[in-house]
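The pair is quoted verbatim as follows:
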Amino acid sequence: KNICNYIHLPVQSGSSRILKIMKRGYSRQEYIKLIDNIKKKIPDCAISMDIITGFCSETEEDHQETLSLMEYVKYDYGYMFKYSERPNTSAARMEDDVPEDIKQKRLSEIIEKQQSHSLLNMQKKVGKTFEVLIEGISKKSAEHYYGRTTHNTAVVFEKENYTLGEYVMVKINSCTSATLKGKIVKIW
């Protein structure tokens, strides 16, 4: 009960060739096996990732493998970036040979796919009730709190008579691809 149903499992790329060049220590197939095990053992677990697009020598085929991995997993959240050289890394000794416009195009495709998966996962939560830890006042309205579910999902709801740090039960009425919106419900 004290462990969240949320795992951040960085992937970086869906291409085994790129993962090897990155020295990640796992292949696409090994990563998929981890995902399958998580989904089997913790069916209600939210999964997030990190993806870097445009890494040295990345081809269109490598990029398509990343998109197909995203389609397979359907991550709840993602942290997506285009490659840029970092000093004192082994990649800094490689040729940054993917043109900037290609990196940006690929990043846009990855972001678009992730937003559609995030929305799909959020829509599955509408109509359900979740325990939410009240973390703060909503950025958009002083009349609302925001908090997080066990899935690390942001929820916005009316304050009522509760304070920061309390847990409340919130019934979800609507969502965006990034936020659930709901109302506190009393559970007797």
Summary: The chain has four helices and eight strands. The two ends are 20 Å apart (CA to CA). The first helix runs from residue 16 to 22.
